[in-house]
Specification:
The protein has a six-stranded parallel sheet, sandwiched between helices. A five-stranded parallel sheet has the order 8-7-9-10-11, sandwiched between helices. The chain folds into two domains: 158 residues, Glycogen Phosphorylase B (Rossmann fold), CATH 3.40.50.2000; 154 residues, Rossmann fold, CATH 3.40.50. The longest helix is centred in the N-terminal third of the chain and has 19 residues. It starts with a strand and ends with a helix. By secondary structure, the chain is α/β, with parallel strands linked by helices. α2 packs parallel to α3.
Length: 330
């Protein structure tokens, strides 16, 4: 099958994972990179992107188009694609398509395009009915995943433990919800790894001092996780009740994970056996304090969480297979 993936092909983005695993499954994969541009240039750039995409589709004649989010894709362009060539057009949105108030999550293009896709994939079960009411023909739940090539336990040296290691670590970008939880943990040996949003947006001066002034991905992320005792997963507002990419990446790296509780995460992992969960700052502090003094329990839970990732096949290859299964039936 010839597949065209439309999205932002930046390092460690979900587009990269799907490109690799569709290729691995025997598909011939083409890509269309929409890029990231300054706000002032968005309108003229959108016009160019849509025109160039139509040219590429005429040239390669794909049998399936997978749009990741579709931030710059005009609804009219989707209709023109359907006139050009008869093939399924799918969308996977790693954000809430209706969350127009969070920068970069959504816009009018995304919302207005929903009815024109043949299938719309969302990571969040809570969004299924809302997306369906948006007029799409078919909506499917497709969780996030991990990439075994990238997310796996690694050995770290004593020197690396000294640089990357802390009792408690949080890897991720700033949000008001995350700041709210993390500022309650100042009595612990806490480190934060993430983009410059922590410098620009974090209001708590003491918490800013815990920021390590960079984000970590890939091997470096695994070094942080395998050098630290406890890894936190705090959900952003749009992920509440659902899950995020860290849900699978952290345990797949062999980390001991203390995660914000949600119904979906409880489906993926057994509480207190494969993952530890919290629902309030007090519960979070209590569990961090307890597990910092129980190394054997931390090790046992981390190993069980890693096994669950492998045995349940929470991989991007399995997610890619699911997309192809649906494409065969559309």
């Amino acid at each position: 099958m010839k597949i065209l993936i439309v999205g932002e092909f930046l390092p460690f983005r979900i587009e990269i994972f799907y490109r690799y695993y569709f290729n691995l499954l025997g598909c011939k994969v083409f890509t269309f990179h929409t890029g990231i541009i300054p706000k002032i240039l968005e309108l003229p750039w959108q016009f160019i992107i849509n025109r160039q995409l139509l040219k590429k589709i005429r040239l390669i004649k794909p049998e399936l188009i997978l749009v990741i989010k579709g931030y710059f894709l005009y609804p009219d362009t989707i209709l023109k694609i359907k006139e050009l060539i008869k093939m399924p057009i799918f969308c996977f949105n790693p954000d809430d398509p209706f969350n127009i108030f969070y920068p970069g999550s959504s816009n009018e293009n995304i919302i207005r395009a929903i009815p024109y896709y043949d299938c719309y994939f969302t990571f969040n079960r809570n969004l299924l009915e809302k997306i369906k009411k948006g007029g799409v023909r078919r909506v499917e739940y497709l969780p996030f995943a991990f990439d075994p090539q990238l997310h796996h336990p690694i050995e770290v040296t004593e020197e690396e433990k000294g640089y990357y290691g802390n009792d408690v670590v949080f890897i991720g970008n700033w949000s008001i919800e995350r700041e709210g939880y993390l500022k309650e943990l100042k009595r612990f040996d806490l480190a934060i790894w993430g983009e410059n949003y922590w410098k620009r947006l974090c209001k708590d001066k003491d918490l800013k001092k815990r920021w390590r002034k960079k984000a970590v991905y890939g091997t470096e992320q695994s070094k942080v996780l395998n050098s630290s005792k406890i890894s936190l997963n705090i959900l952003r507002a749009q992920n509440k009740g659902s899950h995020n990419m860290r849900t699978f990446e952290l345990p797949a790296c062999g980390a001991f994970v203390v995660s914000e509780r949600s119904p979906e995460i409880e489906e993926f992992f057994k509480e207190d056996e494969e993952i530890v969960l919290f629902s309030s700052p007090d519960e979070l502090k209590e569990k961090i304090g307890y597990y910092l003094h129980n190394e054997e329990k931390r090790k046992r839970i981390a190993e069980a969480g890693f096994r669950r990732c492998i045995e349940s096949n929470y991989t991007y290859q399995r997610r890619a297979e699911r997309i192809l299964e649906i494409a065969d039936n559309v």
